[in-house]
């Protein structure tokens, strides 16, 4: 069975700023902001939520299928997918626009400012869950064009396919009613702690009320790990310590890849969260979102070293 990934495909331009943003932004003049951040390095990487999640799922020998458009400059990215055993069957190449691009600046405290050009993502509504012929066990709806996220959620709900709603950086694009509608259709809802605050502001729902609308709420907490909550139980997941902190970009996508790869194999939520944490650690240790690598054997060994448990991740 496959996991279907509805989300973005993008080229990431990742930049390191050798100071902190708050030293260059004057709170009293935020209404007339005009700043320039001189960065130390710039690298072009493969990215986008669907691409990042699929890449780590493939390392875990999962079966991701990407439902997303890509731009007319896609040859390099598609070759990358082929080389890393990621299926491209349902990636549609646009003939009229470039691939989406994210320009991400990270400061010394790992705060990030991102500018995103949607590019070919604007065509995401032309793709449908029903286009997929393979059997689907689960769907992840991650940030892309808002209208496509709403459409794919509705299609999953009507087809009785369980899915996770992952609004990410698109959360502010949704109206209050749209947020409540999609959350109400979802089985899982995953956000970081800041996005959780935005969710509460938009919906008026705290964690307890959210669990009247989804089966599982996942809140990622960066270096503090994650929390997985159901109506019956809350699981606090300790992080897997990275050997170095080269770049936090993409750690959340790696966590999602690990969590849901384990979930579709039938592992419990504690184990799923721990698999997600190990996957995130690998991503943090490499610059860029799709440069980390591991074999299934080394991943399982690191999992046991971190959590003192043996896990079987063979598909």
From TrEMBL:
Stretches assigned to the Carbohydrate kinase PfkB domain: 38-291
Superkingdom per UniProt: Bacteria
Organism lineage: Bacteria, Candidatus Magasanikiibacteriota
Coiled-coil intervals: none
Gene Ontology MF: a single term: kinase activity
Protein name: Carbohydrate kinase family protein
Pfam families attached to this UniProt entry: PfkB
Keywords, in A-Z order: Kinase, Transferase
InterPro entries hit by this protein: PfkB_dom (IPR011611), Ribokinase-like (IPR029056)
């Amino acid at each position: 069975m496959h996991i279907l990934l509805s989300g973005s495909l993008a080229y990431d331009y990742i930049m390191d700023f050798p100071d902190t943003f708050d030293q260059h932004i004057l709170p009293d003049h935020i209404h007339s902001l005009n700043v320039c951040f001189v960065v130390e390095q710039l690298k072009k990487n493969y990215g986008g939520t669907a691409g990042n999640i699929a890449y780590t799922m493939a390392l875990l020998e999962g079966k991701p299928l990407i439902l997303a458009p890509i731009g007319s400059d896609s040859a390099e990215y598609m070759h990358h997918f082929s080389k890393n055993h990621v299926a491209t069957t349902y990636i549609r190449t646009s003939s009229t626009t470039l691939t989406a691009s994210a320009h991400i600046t990270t400061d010394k405290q790992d705060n990030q400012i991102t500018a995103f050009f949607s590019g070919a993502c604007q065509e995401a509504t032309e793709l449908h869950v029903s286009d997929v012929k393979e059997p689907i066990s689960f769907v992840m709806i991650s940030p892309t064009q808002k209208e496509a996220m709403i459409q794919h959620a509705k299609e999953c709900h009507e087809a009785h396919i369980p899915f996770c709603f992952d609004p990410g950086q698109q959360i502010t694009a949704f109206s209050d009613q749209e947020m409540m509608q999609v959350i109400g259709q979802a089985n899982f809802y995953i956000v970081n702690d800041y996005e959780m605050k935005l969710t509460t502001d938009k919906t008026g729902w705290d964690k307890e009320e959210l669990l009247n609308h989804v089966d599982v709420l996942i809140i990622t907490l960066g270096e503090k790990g994650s929390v997985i909550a159901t109506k019956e139980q809350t699981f606090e997941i300790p992080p897997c310590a990275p050997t170095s902190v080269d770049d936090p970009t993409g750690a959340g996508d790696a966590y999602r890849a690990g969590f849901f790869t384990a979930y579709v194999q039938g592992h419990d939520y504690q184990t799923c969260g721990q698999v997600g944490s190990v996957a995130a650690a690998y991503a943090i240790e490499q610059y860029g979102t799709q440069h980390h690598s591991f074999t299934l054997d080394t991943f399982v060994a690191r999992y046991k070293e971190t959590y003192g448990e043996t896990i079987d991740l063979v598909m």
